Structures are given as structure tokens and as C-alpha cells.
Amino acid sequence: MCLGIPGRVVALRDNPHLATVDVLGDETTVNIGMLDEPVAPGDYVLIHVGFAMNKIDAADARQALDGLQLMGKSDTEVDQWV
Length: 82
What we know:
There is one protein chain. By secondary structure, the chain is α+β, with helices and mostly antiparallel strands. It has 2 helices and 5 strands; from the N terminus they run βββββαα. A 5-stranded antiparallel beta sheet has the order 3-2-1-4-5, with helices on one face. A hairpin with a 5-residue loop joins strand 1 (5-12) and strand 2. The longest helix has 12 residues, at 58-69. The mean pLDDT is 88.
């Protein structure tokens, strides 16, 4: 089992395989080249080692964040993001 971190796509980069993704307020570049469907700003993705593995909806992102919350994130940080 791997740990997937949910992130919200902020912007698509000039390289069609890269996107800027917000993960709880921190922006990072993620490779979106493995996704089966296109993403747009505002979409959520599940990230593993710098690659977007799946496009997910807001409810799935929230569920993943709730799981991460059990590992130490505060309620305030999670509630402000989703």
C-alpha cells in the first residue's frame, strides 16, 4: 500500500506533463503525464512521489486528508484547504 497525498491543481505548466498543485497551502510541481484524463485548475489529484496517480473529486480529497489528519495535521489546516 502506498501513501497518496491529495492536491488541488492550481495551474498547468508549459510542459504538458507538469502542473502546479496546492497541497494544504504549499505549491509544488507534479507530473500529470500518467493520468488517463485531462485535468484543469481546480481539479483534485492524488499524488505519490511527485506523480499524479488519479484524478479525484473533492469528497475523495477530503477523505484522504481526514486520513492524513490522523497522522498529525490539525483540524484547522485541513478545514481551510477543502
